[in-house]
Design goal:
The complex is a heterodimer. By secondary structure, chain A is mainly alpha-helical. Chain A contains 15 helices and two strands. Chain A has a single domain, classed as ABC transporter involved in vitamin B12 uptake, BtuC (Orthogonal Bundle), CATH 1.10.3470. Chain A is 73% helix and 1% strand. A two-stranded antiparallel ribbon of chain A has the order 1-2. The longest helix of chain A is centred in the C-terminal third of the chain and has 27 residues. In chain B, helix 4 packs parallel to helix 9, helix 4 crosses helix 10 and helix 9 crosses helix 10. Chain B is globular. Chain B is built from 15 helices and two strands. The chains are: A mainly alpha, B mainly alpha. The interface between A and B is large, with 66 and 62 residues.
């Protein structure tokens, strides 16, 4: 019980509740159920991406190409919709999932087979994917009036008072919660991140596991690509530019260790919700949106400082300073 | 940083040393130089406007400012850390200079404020990484938002203009004929960083830390202090770049130098610096700077849009690193 109360997740829930209460004390309209639904729906893309990124970071990698993957897949979906307006939504979603997974697989193959460091691979593919969007679209926008009503309507359709977009975020979280905590694949992600050498001796293929993580992250990015483009009813080269770092930030705030092997999906999701509340609350509270970047930056720095304090075990060896250095 | 990416190939010791000539011939720098020359020749065939002294001089502006930061970043990455906040430091330093502009501080004052802001930001990163023992990649993703966020708070959607005309020399001035002030500064800094990394004890310490921080500590190297100095240096270089860029553009906006951090890291990695730390050289980074500048300028002459150039840069980054590995797999 004490362990649960002292966990990062409990702390985040506490911070989120306190933050919401603080905002509500001055602006009661913020905790109006309809507004909370809005905030959650706004945060849903970040939640879905944070789930994928959390898995990648667990395996000691990092995926900086998620936002570019999102934008490219979104553009392809939008152009498909313009070219074939009759194409059913399930087909579009299938295209988004497959294309996203394929783009993720490119990252994964380079990391697995050529052992190029993940940060270099995804830096490269990030710029390549963005460039490809320009090439296929010729720099043109796909606007709302060119998209079919079914295409743009899907993420906004409401089931039991929640938009489909929010339901997909919940479903993604649920599915991956099971995958991470109840399957050998989920164990493998932790094992590879926690101690790759031990993982090899346990019969786990480190490279293949990292590949799997990249494919899953890419697949979720692709799915978010369609949802994003459909929800905002516009597709252009620069959508979600810089979003990759916000996704990493959500994971870090949520207690996913950047060195891999530690952290929970719930933490990453709560981290995303925390960032989402800040983003949505600023205009309500009357603070200029220009403050948002600095506030989320400060939140990241503070959260990382917390992570390090929590993760630092007391060494038994005499040269304790050396141990701390080695960890840093 | 060294924690991200487990896929490090083991460093095997050869049973005998290669001759220096063979080693130089097979080195990364030679490969890169060949790429640079190939791009130069291709450019001059593709565009009739390429081979012109003024054109080539203009081309240097594409990379000089980024390369100044890349030198300091190279040392930091060799030591096993990274700084993703450099572009945001440029924004903050530029904002600080613009802010100071209203108090009539003069050109010297502006320069000192630019450099000082860079140093303070670098020191803040350095304190978080070495003082609190936090991973630099996450710290600097945070301060990247923080520093640029402060620029947004101060500037909003406004901008600062009206820099004194003498100030613009740092970005637009020419020392002699087509040789710009920025290019001279780039060359001087390249030399300084070459000496620092390859000819001093400090440079030795940087390599030692990147290869084995614990071993370095036991060898009597003050690991935390060296890393702190390296963060100060990247901050300082970002301040220098901020002065040049602000002088060249003649204005400050919060979006200044947006996305540069990734281009600078690309330049460093392309230059043969191991992203996992421990190896690489300054000449490599210098050649990589020219390669990137030539590619973007050549494509620009062919009217290729900037965003499409990024495809070439991305392929270059992955390709140059993948090819030797593919080659060794194919030979095995």
């Amino acid at each position: 019980m004490i362990r649960i109360l002292k966990s990062r997740e409990a702390l985040l829930v506490g911070v989120i509740l306190a933050l919401t209460a603080l905002i509500a004390s001055r602006f009661p309209a913020f905790i109006d159920p309809a507004n909370l639904v809005n905030v959650f729906t706004d945060t849903s893309p970040l939640i879905i991406l944070a789930v994928g990124q959390a898995i990648v970071i667990l395996t000691r990698c990092i995926d900086l190409s998620v936002a570019a993957n999102l934008a490219l897949t979104g553009m392809v979906c939008a152009m498909l919709n313009v070219a074939y307006p009759g194409l059913p939504i399930p087909a579009i979603i299938a295209v988004a999932l497959i294309l996203g997974a394929l783009l993720g697989a490119i990252n994964g193959i380079l990391v697995w087979k050529l052992t190029i460091p993940p940060i270099v691979v995804t830096l490269g593919t990030l710029t390549i994917y963005r460039g490809i969007i320009f090439v296929i679209s010729d720099g043109a926008w796909v606007n709302a009036h060119e998209m079919s009503p079914a295409f743009t309507g899907f993420p906004r359709a409401e089931i039991l008072g929640l938009p489909v977009l929010a339901w997909i975020a919940i479903l993604t979280a649920a599915v991956f919660f099971v995958v991470i905590s109840r399957t050998p694949l989920g164990r493998a992600f932790y094992a590879v991140g926690g101690n790759p050498h031990a993982a090899v001796y346990a019969g786990i293929n480190v490279g293949r596991t990292q590949f799997n993580a990249f494919v899953l992250s890419g697949m979720l990015a692709g799915l978010t690509g369609y949802l994003w483009v459909a929800r905002y009813s516009v597709a252009y080269v620069d959508i979600a530019k810089g979003f990759e770092l916000e996704v990493v930030a959500a994971c870090v705030i949520g207690g996913i260790a950047i060195a891999g092997g530690a952290g929970t999906l719930m933490g990453a999701i709560l981290g995303a919700i925390f960032l989402g509340i800040i983003k949505n609350a600023l205009p309500v509270v009357g603070i200029s949106p220009f403050w948002q970047l600095a506030i989320s930056g400060a939140a990241i720095v503070i959260a990382v400082a917390f992570n390090a304090r929590a993760g630092r075990t007391k060494g038994r060896i005499i040269l304790k300073r050396a141990e701390v250095e080695a960890q840093a | 940083m060294s924690d991200v990416g487990f896929n490090q190939t083991s460093r095997d010791l050869p049973d005998r040393l290669q001759s220096p000539v063979v080693r130089a011939f097979k080195s990364w720098e030679t490969l890169l130089l060949a790429v640079a020359i190939a791009i130069f020749i291709t450019n001059s065939f593709l565009s009739p406007y390429f081979l012109n002294a003024w054109n080539l001089s203009d081309a240097t502006f594409n990379f000089t400012e980024k390369a100044m930061i890349a030198f300091a970043m190279a040392l930091l990455i060799v030591a096993g850390e990274i700084d993703l906040s450099v572009a945001s430091i440029i924004a903050l330093a530029s904002t600080a200079m613009g802010f100071a502009l209203q108090f009539d501080v003069g050109v010297v004052g502006l320069v000192l404020i630019g450099l000082g802001t860079g140093l303070i930001c670098g020191g803040f990163n350095g304190f978080l990484v070495t003082g609190l023992g936090l991973p630099s990649i996450v710290v600097t993703i945070g301060t990247m938002s923080l520093f640029r966020g402060i620029s947004y708070i101060i500037l909003g959607d406004q901008g600062f203009r009206g820099y004194p005309s003498e100030f613009s020399y740092f970005g637009q001035g020419y020392v002699w004929w087509v040789i710009s002030f920025e290019f001279v500064l780039f060359a001087v800094l390249a030399l300084l960083y070459y000496v620092l990394l390859h000819r001093t004890n400090f440079g030795r310490a940087v390599y030692a830390i990147g290869n084995n921080p614990t071993g370095a500590l036991f060898s009597g190297i003050r690991v935390a202090r060296v890393k702190f100095i390296l963060f100060l240096l990247t901050g300082l270089m970002s301040g220098v770049a901020a002065i040049c860029l602000t002088a060249r553009l003649g204005s400050t906006r919060p979006t200044i130098a947006l996305g540069w951090e990734l281009e600078i890291v690309t330049m460093v990695v392309l230059g043969g610096i191991n992203i996992l730390g421990g190896s690489g050289s300054i000449p490599g980074v210098v050649i990589a700077a020219f390669v990137m500048g030539l590619v973007t300028f050549g494509l620009g002459l062919l009217n290729v849009p900037g965003i499409v150039m990024s495809i070439f840069i991305g392929c270059l980054l992955i390709g140059v690193i993948a090819l030797p590995r593919l080659w060794s797999i194919w030979r095995a």
